[in-house]
């Protein structure tokens, strides 16, 4: 991003912050609170849903476990804690779509349609 465009965006943000009475300290406090909340997160799915592992599991965790997914799959630091010999992923040998068109469709086929 070039310097003029950056300065223009910063000036716009400062005007909008002044318009709504937002101080730079408010933004810093909000960012710090978000970072603290994210550090407490232990599990995250591909959609960005999170859970700290405390209390009742949220619906997305319940659904994923019911569908056969392991909780370790969603662990944020799980990649370093996993036993390389333990298979925690999907069992593709029982994939009902294996060998069908659904398993072999390519993005080029979709864009051509």
UniProtKB/TrEMBL annotation:
Key words, A-Z: DNA-binding
Lineage: Bacteria, Pseudomonadati, Pseudomonadota, Betaproteobacteria, Burkholderiales
The protein, known as: DNA-binding protein H-NS
Superkingdom, taxonomy of origin: Bacteria
InterPro entries listed in its UniProt record: H-NS_C_dom (IPR027444), H-NS_C_dom_sf (IPR037150)
GO molecular function terms noted in the UniProt entry: DNA binding
Claim: DNA-binding is one of the keywords in the record: yes
Coiled-coil annotated spans: none
Source organism per UniProt: Paraburkholderia silvatlantica
Ranges where the DNA-binding protein H-NS-like C-terminal domain occurs: 42-76
């Amino acid at each position: 991003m070039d310097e003029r465009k950056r300065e223009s965006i910063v000036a716009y943000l400062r005007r909008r912050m002044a318009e709504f009475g937002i101080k730079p300290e408010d933004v810093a406090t909000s960012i710090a609170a978000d970072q603290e909340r994210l550090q407490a997160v232990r599990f995250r799915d591909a959609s960005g849903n999170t859970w700290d592992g405390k209390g009742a599991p949220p619906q997305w965790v319940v659904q994923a476990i019911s569908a056969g997914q392991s909780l370790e799959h969603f662990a944020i630091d799980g990649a370093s804690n996993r036993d390389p010999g333990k298979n925690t992923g999907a069992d593709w040998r029982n994939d009902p779509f294996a060998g069908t068109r659904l398993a072999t469709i390519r993005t080029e086929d979709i864009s051509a349609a």
